[in-house]
Design a protein that fits this description.
Blueprint (H helix, E strand, L loop, with lengths): L5 H19 L10 H28 L9 H32 L4 E2 L2 E2 L8 H8 L1 H26 L3 H4 L4 H6 L5
Antiparallel strand pairs: 1-2
Bound molecules: protoporphyrin IX containing FE (2 copies).
One protoporphyrin IX containing FE binds next to helix 1, helix 2, helix 3 and helix 5.
Length: 178
């Protein structure tokens, strides 16, 4: 069992946490009734975007360990799921930004006026319209992905989950079964 690089493990779990926060705080951030949750939604969504912007080049630089032995269809499915997750981690905050521009011309994130694209542009409206659907898709796919990781650990009994766990203490809680 070969672990992922520590920095990538840290970013993986931070991202998972912040995506869940963004989802729990979701709703229209421009509505007065969502004043606080809207701030949390936009801030956590932007953090997701920043984390993936750091993560992708870092992944290229440090690489990822070869996967645990598995049938080819599983390797392909995992690769497709991971690529789609990366795509959604980029697309969901970007479409959210466009959706925000479609709803308001000015949005203050805490004390900072968030720069927004011009909502008159057709691509801004088109992107914004996809935000809710893509946000839901991200949560569903992440849930399936987490289920697959747990199935690897408890049913297939391989080291897939342990590869993504940070330190010794965590790996004792989920010891690799091979
Ligand atoms: C991973 C990050 C994000 C996730 C998972 C996410 C998810 C969602 C979901 C599921 C909704 C629909 C809520 C509902 O109708 O009850 C929503 C709404 C919204 N989100 Fe996000 N979002 C994220 C990031 C962002 C960001 C970064 C922005 C802005 C910069 C943003 C702006 C909005 C806006 C304006 C709405 C209201 C849409 C509407 O009512 O038509 N989101 N988001
Ligand atoms: C919003 C939540 C999550 C997102 C967006 C997410 C995203 C990702 C992505 C993109 C990868 C591919 C890493 C790479 O090869 O570069 C990955 C790997 C992994 N994730 Fe998640 N993940 C989430 C939650 C979880 C949860 C809850 C678990 C465990 C229950 C989990 C377990 C794993 C494991 C074990 C790997 C490594 C797979 C391997 O090395 O073959 N993830 N995740």
């Amino acid at each position: 069992m070969h672990r992922h690089a520590s920095a990538l493990i840290l970013i993986h779990w931070l991202t998972a946490l912040v995506v869940v926060v963004a989802y729990l705080a979701s709703g229209d951030p421009t509505k007065a009734s969502h004043a606080l949750s809207g701030q949390i939604h936009v801030a956590s969504g932007l953090v997701v975007f920043l984390l993936v912007l750091i993560r992708l080049p870092l992944r290229l630089i440090v690489g990822v360990p070869a996967g645990e032995p598995a049938p080819r269809w599983q390797q392909r499915l995992a690769r497709a799921a991971h690529s789609t997750l990366y795509g959604l981690l980029l697309a969901v905050p970007l479409t959210g930004w466009a959706e925000l521009a479609d709803k308001t011309s000015q949005f203050a994130l805490f004390a900072w006026t968030l720069p927004l694209p011009d909502a008159q542009m057709i691509w801004v409206r088109a992107l914004g319209a996809a935000h809710t659907v893509l946000g839901d898709a991200l949560i569903w796919l992440a849930g399936l992905h987490a289920g697959a990781a747990l199935a690897h650990h408890y049913l297939l009994r391989d080291g897939t989950l342990a590869r993504m766990l940070p330190g010794r203490g965590w790996r004792t809680l989920f010891p690799p079964k091979t």
